[in-house]
Amino acid sequence: EAIGQGCDQVVFLDGQEGRYIEELGGMNLYFVFDDGTIATPATGTILEGITRASIIELAGKLGHQVEERRVSIEEWREGVTSGRIVEIFACGTAAVVTPVGSLKSASGEVPAPASTDLTMRLRQALVDIQFGRAEDTFGWMHRIV
């Protein structure tokens, strides 16, 4: 169905109510709000990924409050439409950090927010630590050779 809609990924919702976001395919989702706060769905039924944890720490270091809480599909739609949600990105081991495009469903399409500024800063910061181009102040990297 997603491929038929021209989509590369699917959004999984909770199994109880079918309205709270769990994850995007095999990646965790983040919503950046106009006040600089970031929300990511609370874990419980989804895997607590190391990339997810790294992004939460990096965002905090950059001065952003990260809330791990329930995020509804309605909040996504309304937040983008009102301008309250200014960026949406996903993270995972293979993709690292990537902007999320539009949301398509039987009830219509919600465009992607225009900005990717924080998304790309977080991606660059994480990749720079991974490749040794930036100091690892978190103690994540361990020399094995």
Describe the structure.
The chain has 145 residues and is α+β, with helices and mostly antiparallel strands. 25% of the residues lie in helices and 27% in strands. Strand 8 and strand 9 form a beta hairpin.
Mean pLDDT: 92
Tally the beta strands. 9
The helix-and-strand class reads alpha+beta
Shape: globular
Please report the number of helical segments: 3
Across the major sheet, the strand order is 5-4-3-6-7
Q: Which residue ranges are poorly predicted, with pLDDT under 50 across at least 5 consecutive positions?
A: none
Helices and strands, in N-to-C order?
EEEEHEHEEEEH
User: How many angstroms does the end-to-end distance come to?
Assistant: 46 Å
**Largest β sheet strand count, sense and barrel closure:** 5 strands, mixed
Indicate the radius of gyration in whole angstroms. Answer: 16 Å
User: How big a fraction of the residues is strand?
Assistant: 25-35%
Assembly category? single chain
Residue share in helix = 10-25%
